[in-house]
Amino acid sequence: MTKENRPKARVAKGFRDIAAEEIRGTRQMLATIQRVYEAYGFEPVEQPFIEYTDALGKFLPDQDRPNAGVFSFQDDDDQWLSLRYDLTAPLARYVAENSQKLPTPYRSYRQGWVFRNEKPGPGRFRQFMQFDADTVGSASPVADAEVCMMAADTMEALGLQRGQYVMKFNSRKLLDGFTETFAIGEEVKLTWLRALDKLDRLGKEGVALLLGEGRKDESGDFTKGAGLNAKQIEASLAFATATALDPAFVSGSKNGEDGLRDLEAMQALFAAAGYGADRIRYDSSVVRGLEYYTGPVFECELLMETKDEDGRTVRFGSVGGGGRYDDLVARFTGQQVPATGFSIGVSRLYSALKLVGKAQESATLAPVVVLVMDKDRQGDYWRMVQALRAGGVRAEMYAGTAGMKAQMKYADKRGAPLVVIQGGDEKAKGEVQVKDLRLGSELASNIASREEYASQRLAQFSVPEADLVAAVKKALAQ
C-alpha cells in the first residue's frame, strides 16, 4: 500500500481498547457479583447482541426521545436490526417468546456489552458492559425489595463498608401522585422531573429556579423552567428533600397512594430482614427512566470520595439502578407482565473500586520466559516450557528471532518474574540458569557504577536441569 492509502491506526470515537489488568480485575469482580446473585436463586441467561429493531421498543431506559441512540442496519431481506442498547429489552423479548417454558416468576441474571449511538464524553462510551438481575412475573413489592437487598449485599461482597454506599429507592407512582395532588400539568411534568433529578448538583436554589421561570448557568446559557407557582415550588422542594414517606404529598391520588403502599411494604421487609437506613433508604429525588419505569425505582450510590490522577476530589455517585417496568413484555403479548430489575454499570463500578483500593487484584502472574540461546535447540527449550506448565507454572518460550539482549527486554516488558537461560556451556554441564527479574531490578538500584553492574550476575543462580521446575516454583513462592 502507498503511504497515502494507509489507514490511520485509531480507535473508533466513543469506543476504547481494554488492557489485561482491567480485563482480569473485571472478571474477578463479575465472579463476585455472580456468586451473590446465584445465592439469591437467580439463574444465568444470555441474549444476542443484535435484535430486530422493533423488538427493542421506542425508548431507552434513561432517555425520553423515541427511537434515539441505537446503532441499526438492514439485513439481506430488508429487516431492520439493531445492536442492543441495554439488557432488559432483549430479556422482555425472550420471556415473551418462551413464556410457556419458563417458571413464573422467572428470575435471571445476565452480563454483556451494550451499545448507545450517542455523543461520547469523559467517561461516557458508546460500548459498555452491564450486569443485570430481573424478576419477571411478580407484582409483589417483595420482588422490588429483594433486588435492593441483593444489590446492597453485592456492594459489601465487593469489599465496600457500611457508609461507603447506599441503595436509594422511590416510586414513579409516588412522583405521579404528587403531580396529580398539586395540579402539575402533563405539559410541564417532564421539566419538573428533570429539575428534581438535579437536586444533588444544583441544590435547592438551583432547582427552585428550574421549577419556576428558569435558570441561567455559569456559561450564560438559559434553561426554561416549569413555570410553577410559589406554592407548587415550595411543595416540590419539600417533597424532593423529604427523608420519610409522607401521605400528604399524594393525598387524593389513587396512583400516589398505591405507590405509597408499595414503598411501605418494602420498608417493612427491609426492617424485618435487618437492612437499616445506612444500607437502603427512601430518597424522593430518585427519578430514573422517564418513559420506562412504572413503579418503584432504585439507585445504588457510592458515597466515598477519593482523588483522581490529577489530585482532584472525585465523588463517584451512581454505579447502578433499576426499577419496576410492568409494560415492557406487554409490547409482545398484549398482556401486562409485571417485572422488576437492577443493572450495574460494570466499568464504572470497577473504576470506583480500583480508585478506593477495593478492586480485586488478579492472582495471575506474567509467564516465566524461557530464552532461546541456540536456535538449533528449540526442541530442548520447548520441553522446558512443557515441564514448567505441567508443574503448574505459567510459561512461554520466546518466539521471536532476536538475540539475548532483545529477549531480556521482551521479558521485562511482559512483566515476567523469571527467565530461564541455557546456553551451550550450561547444556554441557546439564544445568540451567534462572534469573529473577524482580529481585535483580531491586538489587540493581543499589549499584553505583556500570563496572559494578557488569561484574555481577544479579539474582541469577544455576540449578541442575532436572530440578528446573522445583527451583522455579521456589523462586516464585519467594
From TrEMBL:
EC number(s) from the headed UniProt entry: 6.1.1.21
Family annotation (InterPro entries): aa-tRNA-synth_II, aa-tRNA-synth_II/BPL/LPL, Anticodon-bd, Anticodon-bd_dom_sf, His-tRNA-ligase, HisRS-like_core, HisRS/HisZ, HisRS_anticodon
Pfam families hit by this protein: HGTP_anticodon, tRNA-synt_His
A Gene Ontology cellular-component term: cytoplasm
Sequence positions that bind L-histidine: 86-88, 116, 130, 134, 288, 292-293
Biological process (GO), any one: histidyl-tRNA aminoacylation
Aminoacyl-transfer RNA synthetases class-II family profile domain span: 29-367
Stored Gene3D superfamilies: Anticodon-binding domain (3.40.50.800), Bira Bifunctional Protein, Domain 2 (3.30.930.10)
Top-tier EC class: ligase
Keyword Nucleotide-binding attributed: yes
Lineage top rank: taxon: Bacteria
ATP-binding among keywords: yes
Record's keyword terms, sorted: Aminoacyl-tRNA synthetase, ATP-binding, Cytoplasm, Ligase, Nucleotide-binding, Protein biosynthesis
Catalytic activity, as annotated: tRNA(His) + L-histidine + ATP = L-histidyl-tRNA(His) + AMP + diphosphate + H(+)
Location(s) in or outside the cell: Cytoplasm
GO molecular function annotations of the record: ATP binding; histidine-tRNA ligase activity
Subunit structure: Homodimer.
Record-stated family: Belongs to the class-II aminoacyl-tRNA synthetase family.
Record NCBIfam families: hisS
Name recorded for this polypeptide: Histidine--tRNA ligase
Organism listed in the record: Aestuariivirga litoralis
Gene: hisS
